[in-house]
Amino acid sequence: MSSTVDMIKERLSIVEVLGSYIKLDKAGVNLKARCPFHNEKTPSFVVSPSRNTYYCFGCGAKGDIFSFVETFEGLDFKGALKVLADRAGVEIIQESRDVRDEREQSLLILEGATQFFEDVFDRMPEVLAYLEKRGAKDPTLKKFRVGFAPDDWHGVTAYLQKKGYKEKEMVESGLVIQGPKGLYDRFRSRIMFPLSDSSGRIIAFSGRIFESQSKSLKIVEGEAVAKYINSPETLLFSKSHVLYGYDKAKLAIRKWNFSIIVEGQMDLLMSHQAGYANTVAPSGTALTGEQLSLLLRLSPNVVLAFDGDAAGLKATERSAHLALALGMDVKVVALPRGGDPADLIAADPMQWKAAIKNAKHVIEFYLDALGAQGQDIRTFRRDVGNVVLPFVKRIPNKIDQSHFVSRIAGRLGLEVEAVREEVKRLGLGARVSVSAGKGSGEKKASPKVPIDRMIWNVILWQREEKKRAIDLVSVEKKLQGIYGREEMERALALASIDLDNRIFEAEEEWGDGKNLEGALEEMFHRLTYGVLVERYAAAKSDLQAAEEKGNTEEIEKALALCNEISKQLLHK
What pLDDT was estimated at residue 562? Predict the structure, then answer.
C-alpha cells in the first residue's frame, strides 16, 4: 500500500489537489486560504508546497493530501486513496481476503449486492417501463446503478451465501435481517437506489416499493405501506451525513458554485438527466447540518427545490434556517402546488431550467408567498414577523441582514428601524453549530506571538531546512547565553511536540528569509531585556522577603543582585 501512496504523492502535488477544492492565494513561499474545516473570516489555513503539508492556525487541522481528502470528503483512508488514485491514474492492488478489515468486507458485500440488483433489473422489463413512464431514461438509470430487489425472501441472502460471506457480515451490511426463523432479505420487490460515499463506493440502499405490490410485502404488517425503506445505520452508513448523488454532484457544484437540493431519488435522477449534475438529495432523513456542511465546503450557494406541498414547504423552512445559520446564501424554487421536480422535468425539462433560473432568495420567496395570500395588511405584517424575520435573524452577515431589513420594511410600509428592532428582539436559541472536520466553530486569532516562541520557531524551522538563511550555531549559542544549555534544549524539545505548527508560524513570518538576521538581532535584544525584567522582579521579591525576615546576609545578597540586573537594564 505504501508504494501506491508514494506513487500518488509523486504524481499529485498538494497545491494541485487542495487547489481543486479551495481557493489558494500566494503568501510568500507558502499559500493561504480560508480553512474549509471551520468557519473563519481571515485566512489561517497555510499550505507548504516544499513539504507537501498544510496547517490551520485556527482549528489545528494538518496533514497531507490524503488527510485533506479524508476530512473534506468525509471518507476513510481507503476512500481517499481511491479518489486520489483515480485522479493520479494509479492502479490500487487489491489485498487478499485475510487482511481485509470489517469496513472493506462490508463494502465488498454491498458492491456484490448492487451487481445482483442490477442483474435482476435487467430481467424485469416491467420495472424499466415504469421508470421510463416516469421520464427516466436507461442511460441515467445505468449511471446511478438503479436495480431491483426480487419478490423473494431469500434472493440476495442466497446470492451472498454462495459468494462465501458469513451470516454476521450479511446482517451487519444492513441487507439481511436475522429473524426467529433464520435470515431473510430486508429489501423485497423494490426498486433499488444505491447510496454512495464521496468516492463512489456503495455504502447503503434506498428501496422504493414497486407499484404491483408483492405477496412477500403484504405478509409483514405495516411494511407494504412504506413507500421507501432505507438501509439501517451501519459501520459505513450514517443517514444524517450522506447525500444521495453527492459523489456525482461534487465536481459540478464546485464548477457552477451552487448546489440544488431535492427531496427524492426520482427528483435527483431527473434533475441530473436534465443537465443539472449539481443536484443532491437527503436520504431517509430531513436535511441535516452535517449534510449542509458537506455542500458548504464546495459552495456557499444552495437552491432548495422541495415538493410543492405542505410537507415540502415545511421542509424548505426548516432547511433554510439551518443553511442561513451556516452563512449560506439560500434560494428557493417555486414549484406548482402539489408538484415535484421529477414530474415537472418529465413534462418539460425547460420548465425546470426556468424554475432554477428564477429561484428567489428564501426571504423574497416567503415575502411573495405570504403576499399572494391576499390577507389584510395587519395579518400580512404579523405573518412576516412570524415567518420571515426569523430568517433575517439567522443571517450572520450584518450587511446582508441590513439589506433584507430594508426590503422587508419597504414591503410592509414600515420604518426600517422598527423592523430592525423587531429582528433584534427575536430569540432563536443557540446558534446552529456543525462539526466540519478537525475542529468546529470560529476561533479568534491568538494574541501576538511572544518573542521567545518566535525565536524557537525560527530555530526549529531552520533545523529542517537544507539551505539555511541564518548561522544556526551562532543563534543557538546566544540562546544558551540567556537560558543556559539545559533550559534551551528543554524549551526546544517542548516546542518540537508541535513541530508542524511552529514551522508554519516561522514560514508565515519569514518564509522568504529576507532580513531574518536583522530581525533576530532585534528579537534577541527584546528577549534579553524581557528576561532581565523578569529576573529583576524576582530579585526584588527575594529582597522583600529577606527584609521581612530580617536576614542581613540574604538582604545583602538580594540587593547586590538587584543592583547588578539594574545596571544591565540601563545598557539595554
Answer: 80
Residue 10's pLDDT band (cuts 50, 70, 90): confident
Pair 107, 53 in one domain: no
- Return the DSSP state at 225: G
| CA angle, 254 then 259 then 262, to 5° | 150
Q: For residue 438, what pLDDT is reported? A: 34
Q: Does some domain include residue 503?
A: yes
- Domain assignment of residue 197, given as a range: 97-230
Q: State pLDDT tens for residues 437-480.
A: 333 333 333 334 567 777 878 888 888 777 788 888 888 888 78
Question: What's the structural domain count of the chain?
Answer: 4
290-301: pLDDT as tens digits: 899 889 888 999
Tell me if 236 is assigned to some domain.
no
* Strand stretches in 57-211, DSSP E: 62-63, 147-149, 176-179, 182-185, 190-196, 202-209
- 107-124 per-position pLDDT tens digit: 999 999 999 999 999 999
Q: Does the residue 367 lie in any domain?
A: yes
Query: How many angstroms separate the CA atoms of 205 and 118, rounded?
Result: 13
Checking DSSP bridges between strand 301-305 and strand 329-332, what pairing results, if any? Answer: parallel
Number of residues in the chain:
572
Give the cell for residue 69.
481528502
